[in-house]
Amino acid sequence: MAFGDARYDKIVTAINRLYDSRGEKEHPSYRRAVDQMGHINRMRNDIVHLGAYLVDRDGVLEGLVSNKVKAMPGREKEFSVDIDLFGRMGTDLTTIMACFTVVLLDHLGPPTEDMRELFWRDTSQRPWLYKPPPQPDAAKQSRKHRPER
User: Fold this and answer.
1) Does residue 104 belong to any structural domain of this protein?
2) Residue from 58, 41, 57 nearest 49 by CA
3) Whole domain around residue 34: which residue ranges?
4) Which phi and psi (to 5°) does residue 81 adopt?
């Protein structure tokens, strides 16, 4: 099985190793897709692992993702989610699929004027709709100083 451990970071690492082993440069559409998919994957992990629930804020139900109850002091995380967020992420996943399709099309041969191919190429260049929430200063600093391997 190609991806026995189907975690996002493991799959990306395996694909990057394939690029390296073949002496190929990453396709720009691959990098574009992988970066955005990483943002969406982090949001997915937060929703699943921190827990999401509905809260009533002045008569309006709001989705809230939070680990405040179980987090160590200073490691709390809480943010709102809504249906529009999931819609933006879903649209971005279509754009990501288009990026991967363009990588495959380019690998198979030179571009053509086929309308389906033009559709995928146009779709792969749509702007991202999902923007990750800003990270707290502590999270930014803890990730900044990791040694490279």
Assistant:
1) yes
2) 41
3) 8-48+83-132
4) -130, 150
Q: Could you tell me if residue 75 is inside a domain?
A: no
Each residue's pLDDT, cut to its tens digit, for the chain (149 residues) gives 455 667 888 889 888 898 899 998 999 999 999 999 999 999 998 888 888 888 888 888 888 888 877 778 887 888 888 889 999 999 999 999 999 999 999 988 887 888 899 999 999 999 999 999 887 665 555 444 445 44
Determine contact, residues 96/120, Cβ cutoff 8 Å. no
Report the 3 state secondary structure along 50-95.
Answer: HCEEEEEECCEEEEEEECCCCCCCCCCCEEEECHHHHHHHHHHHHH
Query: Does a structural domain hold residue 98?
Result: yes
Structurally, the chain folds into a number of domains equal to 1
Q: Is residue 65 part of a domain?
A: no
Whole-structure pTM value? 0.77
Contacts of 71 (CB under 8 A, 6+ apart): 77
Distance CA 32, CA 99 (A): 7
